Structure formats: structure tokens, C-alpha cells
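Input/output pair, single chain:
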Amino acid sequence: MNQDFTCVLCGASQTQLYYSNENSHYLRCSKCELVFLPKRFHLNNADEKSRYDLHQNNPNDKGYRQFLSTVFNPVLKHIKPQAKGLDFGCGPGPTLSLMFESEGHEVDLFDKYYANNTQVFERKYDFITATEVLEHLPNPRFEIDRLFSLLNPKGVLAVMTQLLTNKVDFATWYYKNDPTHVCFFSQKTLQYLAQKNNAKLEIIGDNTALFFPIQQGEVVI
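Output:
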């Protein structure tokens, strides 16, 4: 089987051509509904990092902090004082971690280019954030499974990524035009992740989701 046609999230082989242009061919999984760009179209690490180096993520930018508040505020409601968190894919200008630290929480950082501290994967966390990260992952199945494994029993995993909805015209969608964006999630994809990882799902708007591990004996309504 050609690995290019295997879903990078659920491993299903039932994928179909979703959209193509002169440079790329996007596939859609019929099981989890992930839309993804096969690996042969991905940038190499050097070109990918060059793109990330252009990001203007300034911790002092009020607009950027407001953008991140979509994740920050809901997570803050679900964690206890002095919680331990991980900002996964923090980028060149970590900001969300500073926002949580200002509220008395402790946050570790990980980013494969800017904070490559693999010791974080040996720890457990009360909350994990991944803002504008999932769409960049060449192997989302491995990375998302690993994040769930790092959560404490009553923890929360918060992700931010622009969801692919029925309102989106993929051909003209700005979000796909970033060459580092290789995976696109829909509400159905998030529901698949919640079911696979035995978690409750809360979707906020069209770009944010919270996952809460279901406790043994817990009744989910």
C-alpha cells in the first residue's frame, strides 16, 4: 500500500483526493475526515524553520495576547491554583506560558526548533496547550497520542487550529496557503480524537477545542 494514501491520523486506507492544484494534492480520510497533504509535498526542516522564523509572536503584543485568550480563558476556568502546564509548539516567542505564569501556574515549553526539551515527555501535566500547532504536524497520530499520555487524570488538553467547516471554500482558503500547514481538522475529526482517547470534547467557536480525559466510573451525558 502506498503510504502517501494512508491517513496520518487514524491509519485508515480509505482516503480520497479532496483538492489539487499545480503544486499539491490534498487527501481526505473517509473515517476521521482529516484533510492532509501527503509527505512528498512537505517542506524540508530548513525551509520550514525559515518560515517559522518570520513569525512575529511578540509577548508584548496586546492583539496577540487577545488572540491567545481564546485558549487561555477557558483553560484557566478548569485548572486549580499552581497547576503544572506544557505549552507544546511554543514557537520563537512564547507568550501563552507567560499569561499562565502571571496567574501563578508553572509552564514547561517544547518546540522542536526553539525549545527542544525532550524531558517534558517524561512528566505529567494538569494542562497542555497546543495553539496553532496541529496543522503543522507531519505525524499527528503520534504527537496527539503522546500529548494525551502526558495528561494527569483530571487534566485538560487545549488545542487551537482553524477548523475546516462546510462554510470553507478550500480552493480559496487562506489557511491552506501556508506551506507549513499540512493537516486540517473538522469537528468530526475532533470527535474522532475524543472517542479514541476516551475524552470529553468541548468545541469553542471555529478554532478551539478542549479535551478532558473521562475518569473511570464517570457518567458522560
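The chain has one domain: 45-213. The radius of gyration is 17 Å.
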